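Standup notes
- DV: blocked on the single-chain target, sequence here:
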Amino acid sequence: MKRENLYSLCLVWFIVSVVSACGQNIKNDNRIPDDNYIPTDEVAKTYLQLGVEYMRRGKNDIALTKLQKALQVDHNYASAHNAIAVLYERLGLDNEATQHYQRAMALKPNGSDIHNNYGQFLCKHKQWDKAEKHFFKALENPVYRTPEIPYTNAGLCALRSNNTTKAETHLRTALQKNPKFPRALYQMANLSYEQRRYVPARDYLQRYLELADHTPQTLWLGIRIERVLNNKDMEAKYILLLRKEFPDALETQLLNQSKI
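- DV (later): unblocked, structure below
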């Protein structure tokens, strides 16, 4: 798989740091408390939670409305600026995303989640060095609970810039911080495969599968690993799963084109 596709895989994770503490049942949408009765910050928080939940469901138009309301209630709410920046990035409105990322960082200079998300944004625009600085800025907070996320993102950014040595260093550090972080395990499996280290690639993939379900990407990687290692039974198992569970996936098309 091309490294560009590797990075694309991680984009589905790009909002994790924003929403980690914002789980919200959408049923509450019709129960927005009147700001005449509760503190302003609680109103803004409720709009933020709803906006993030709609983002997770792919309802970006509604999400935008909720996040804009959060900022109308509290225009100095760093978390809302962070979330709406992620949404604008998703919508391809990079100027608006930049403005809100910068506002969020001005309001909360030590906001690890903000720096992590902005680092991904910069990496997407091939600003490798600036991106890495923000990933490491996210790590400066000694009580940051998920350092494996910025390290993994730094590794993926290094892959995009074709610096595999740095990528491996960052991914290994991510796994030192959290040996059970599935995304870093998958990326190390993929990187090991590209480096023709097939047995370690298999080991990393097996560790991933102890923690997470198969995706089209992991199945396609497993097929290629087992094909090289001449394990016909496991290769056939992965092929069957890929065609059965993900018939319309790009990886299934690649499999079919490989005449297997």
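- Follow-up: The longest helix spans residues 40-56.
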